[in-house]
Design a protein that fits this description.
By secondary structure, the chain is α+β, with helices and mostly antiparallel strands. The chain contains eleven helices and 16 strands. It has two domains: about 160 residues, GAF domain (Beta-Lactamase, 2-Layer Sandwich); about 230 residues, Phosphatase 2c, domain 1 (4-Layer Sandwich). It is elongated, with a radius of gyration of 34 Å.
C-alpha cells in the first residue's frame, strides 16, 4: 500500500500492483478486458502478461486488440463473477491463443456505475485451481484497486484540463488588461493615479479616459456584475461600445444612456448581467466636473481647504443593461486646488473581514480624512487599511480605484 500510494502515473500504478499481487496470488496468466464504448459481442484486450511490449490503454487505445465473440465476450458482458474449473476452448475461438493450455479461469467484473465495463481474467494451468472461499476477497480487492486506478486517471485528466483552462484564463486576463489604459493620461491641472486588482485572473472592473474637444477629459469607471471570465467578456463589450460611441463622448448622461440601451438591447438581457458605472467630463480651464451615475458607488471628494470628506451628490439611475430607455440625470461640481476625487468599485467597500463585516464607505472616509494630499500616499494607505481589515480573507471581488487631484 505504501508503494502504491506513491504512484502518480496510472500505468505505473497497474504495473506495481501486478508485481505485488503476484507475490500473494500466484497466477499463470492474467488478462484485462474492456467493453467500454463497444457493443456486444465486441471487446478489447487491454493487458496481457503474454505481451512483450506494454500498451498504455489510456494513451494507445488504437493499438489494443479488438475481438468479437467467443468465451471472453460472454464473460466480459456477463456482469458477474465467473469461475470455470475445467476450461475447454475450441480452436476457432477468437481468444484461443490467450486461453490454450489453461484449465482454470476466474473472471472478475470491474464495476463502473453498476456495470462491468472492464473485467480481469485470471488463468491457471491446473483444473479447479481457484478455491471458492478466496474468490470474494480477490473480487473485492480487484475492484478497490480498479476504483483507485480510475481516480488516478481522472486526476490526470483534470490536471491536464486545469492547465489548459489556466492557459485560457491567463490569455483572457492579458487581453482584458490590454483594454485598460496602458499609460495614465496627462490632464491639464489634474494628477491621475489608478489601481487595479482582479479577484481572479480576469475581472469585470473597468476604468478609462477619453480625450475630448476643447481640452476636456472623460473619466469613466465601471463594474460588471460578478467576476472572472464572464465579467471580463462583458467588460470588453462595454469598452468596445464606449470607444465606438458616435461622436465625442459628451455629455455624461447621454453617454450612459447610449451604453445602457445597447447593452440592454443586445447583451445583458440574455445573460442576466449588468454594469454599474460613473462617467464624468472634466474641464481643466475651470476645474468643473459634470457627471452622471448608473448605480455606481458615489465617488468620495476630499476638500483640501476644509479638510472634509464626503460623497458626491447621488444622481443617476439604474445600472447599465437593466432596462432599455433608462435616463441618467447629471450634476456638476467645481474642484479647488489640491482637492482629490476618489473613484472606486465595490470590491473596496464590500471587502469582508473574518467576522463577515464589510469595509464600507464610512471607513473609506475615515482613512481619507487622515491622509495628506499626495494621491500615491492616499492610495497606499487606503489599500493598506482594506488589507488590514480583511485580515487574511481573500478578496471575492475586483478592486479598482482612480484618484484625481486638482493641481
Amino acid at each position: 500500500m505504501r508503494t502504491i500510494s506513491q504512484q502518480t502515473d496510472p500505468q505505473e500504478l497497474v504495473r506495481t500492483y501486478g508485481e505485488k499481487m503476484r507475490q500473494l496470488i500466484p497466477i499463470d496468466r492474467r488478462m484485462s478486458l474492456s467493453r467500454r464504448d463497444l457493443q456486444t459481442p465486441f471487446y478489447r484486450i487491454t493487458r496481457s502478461t503474454t505481451w512483450e511490449t506494454e500498451i498504455d490503454p489510456w494513451a494507445q487505445k488504437d493499438k489494443l486488440p479488438l475481438l468479437e465473440g467467443g468465451i471472453l465476450a460472454e464473460l466480459c458482458y456477463a456482469n458477474q463473477t465467473t469461475v470455470i474449473d475445467d476450461l475447454q476452448v475450441s480452436k476457432d475461438d477468437p481468444a484461443f491463443e490467450y486461453l490454450d493450455g489453461f484449465r482454470s479461469l476466474l473472471a472478475i467484473p470491474m464495476y463502473d456505475n453498476g456495470e462491468s465495463l472492464n473485467a480481469v481474467i485470471l488463468l491457471q494451468r491446473q483444473p479447479a485451481a481457484f478455491e471458492r472461499d478466496q474468490v470474494p476477497d480477490i473480487v473485492w480487492r480487484s475492484n478497490l484497486f480498479g476504483r483507485a486506478t480510475g481516480t488516478l486517471v481522472l486526476k490526470a485528466k483534470l490536471e491536464t484540463a486545469l492547465k489548459e483552462l489556466d492557459r485560457e484564463l491567463e490569455t483572457v486576463a492579458r487581453l482584458q488588461r490590454c483594454l485598460l489604459p496602458e499609460h495614465l493620461p496627462k490632464v491639464d491641472r489634474m494628477e491621475v493615479t489608478a489601481y487595479y486588482q482582479p479577484a481572479s485572473n480576469a475581472g469585470g472592473d473597468y476604468y478609462d479616459f477619453f480625450e475630448l474637444p476643447d481640452g476636456q477629459w472623460g473619466l469613466f469607471i465601471g463594474d460588471v456584475s460578478g467576476h472572472g471570465t464572464p465579467a471580463a467578456v462583458m467588460m470588453a463589450v462595454t469598452h468596445c461600445m464606449a470607444h465606438t460611441h458616435p461622436g465625442p463622448t459628451v455629455p455624461p448622461g447621454a453617454v450612459l444612456k447610449y451604453l445602457n440601451d445597447h447593452l440592454a438591447n443586445s447583451y445583458t438581457g440574455r445573460i442576466e448581467a449588468f454594469v454599474t458605472a460613473f462617467y464624468g467630463v472634466y474641464d481643466p480651464k475651470n476645474r468643473k466636473l459634470v457627471y452622471a451615475c448608473a448605480g455606481h458607488n458615489p465617488p468620495r471628494l476630499k476638500r483640501c481647504a476644509a479638510g472634509s470628506v464626503f460623497a458626491l451628490d447621488k444622481v443617476g439611475g439604474l445600472p447599465l443593461g437593466v432596462m432599455e430607455g433608462a435616463e441618467y440625470p447629471e450634476a456638476s461640481i467645481y474642484l479647488d486646488f489640491d482637492d482629490q476625487l476618489i473613484l472606486y468599485t465595490d470590491g473596496i467597500t464590500e471587502t469582508h473581514n473574518p467576522a463577515g463585516e464589510q469595509f464600507g464607505e464610512h471607513r473609506i472616509d475615515e482613512v481619507l480624512a487622515k491622509c495628506g494630499m499626495d494621491p500615491k500616499e492616499l492610495s497606499e494607505k487606503l489599500l493598506s487599511a482594506v488589507d488590514q481589515f480583511a485580515d487574511g480573507v481573500a478578496p471575492h471581488d475586483d478592486r479598482t480605484m482612480v484618484i484625481l487631484r486638482a493641481t
